[in-house]
Known about the structure:
The structure is a single chain. The chain is an alpha/beta fold. It has two domains: 38-253, 3-Layer(aba) Sandwich (Rossmann fold), CATH 3.40.50; 260-379, Aspartate Aminotransferase, domain 1. The protein is 30% helix and 14% strand. The chain is built from twelve helices and twelve strands. The protein has a seven-stranded mixed beta sheet with strand order 3-4-2-1-5-6-9. Strand 5, helix 4 (154-167) and strand 6 (171-175) form a beta-alpha-beta unit. Helix 4 crosses helix 5 (212-222) and helix 6 crosses helix 8. The longest helix has 21 residues, at 3-23. Mean pLDDT is 91; it is low at 1-37.
Amino acid sequence: MKKxxxxxxxxxxxxxxxxxxxxxxxxxxxxxKGHAKQFELGVEQLLEDEKDIIEGKDVxxxxxxxxxxxxLNSIVDTLHNDPDVNLTAxxxxxHGVRGSAQAGEYVEYYIDxxxxxPVYSLYGETRKPTPEMLEDVDxxxxxxxxxxxxxxxxxxxxxxxxxxxxENDVEFVVxxxxxxxxxxxxAGPVLDxxxxxxxGEYEIPLRHGMTVGELAKLFNNEFDINADLTVVExxxxxxxxxxDDTNLDFxxxxxxxxxxxxxxxxxxxxxxEGTNVSxxxxxxxxxxxxxxxxxxxxxxxxxxxEQELPGVTFRAASFTPTFSKHAGNxxxxxxxxxxxxxxxxxxxTGLHIVKAIHDLYPEDFSFRSDGFFNNLIxxxxxxxxxxxxxxxxxxxxxxxxxxxxxxxxxEQYLIY
Length: 416
């Protein structure tokens, strides 16, 4: 073969290799994303391989707009139109089955217009299905995207429904979904049971590092629910994955959780909800924008950037919320820019933000009088420590023993 032809073939092979490598850069940890092409959600595994779980049974479904397959088909419509499935009732968590309600808004019983099925609220007068709600149900499915943070209420809707299923001899099935902020990192204080509420019912840390299916197993055994539980697992999900690593389209699980960027900052930034500072509700970047009319944006951004926190930069920002705290009033503060999500420590960052505003503006800043900050952080001593001038490092050190104990328990329930 002529030398020029051999050289041309070698050049073509080299360019092809470069192209493939560039198209599959991996996740920065030496792990390629190519396997994500075979990724399947629990709902897809159910319908393709484990349909016998629901065939011939009356099925109730707890879901919201995130209950979709990888092609964005709604599980409500898929099950309703499946001749092999008898879908009898829907149950809506906070924000409702179709996601039309704002945070904390009461959702009443109604008939779903598209399917004609009854929709029972699990965020109204009752947060646990009553026997009457389960009269026509043999198996109760749960298919909702969680965000990996203790105070996100959907996991307690799941736990309460598991209790109801156990009490009424109903099977309970969790269709598993990814933890969008990965399944490796576990951080924050473990809840003190004296501060149990609907934003934290069980003694788990603020960032639990588990999928909803894994949490269901932990809740069921560690907190004596004892439901007849089945978890339909995902295929090819890996613990290091953030949501973007799955190649799934992100559907907002609630009105103020619009993007995957929001999920990354949420575990720490949401602590601002326990103060008189806006957490950015009523803006296009909730939990990424933080501020109040009394804050000097440049001063706060400079102070926080001087802390040299990993994976994050703070930009001085001003905004006017359209609703919630400081609605209609020009507020000043920061925008959180995560530069490296694998290095970013959301809870540590959130505490630094709260402490900085507390220290810089002592005459204007306040924790909410109803104790909501304590409900979010899961105890009363962190607020006291901030008020007493303790460092964030000292605060974090105080919760490490409980966190280490939880990590040991958690290992028993990991699926992936």
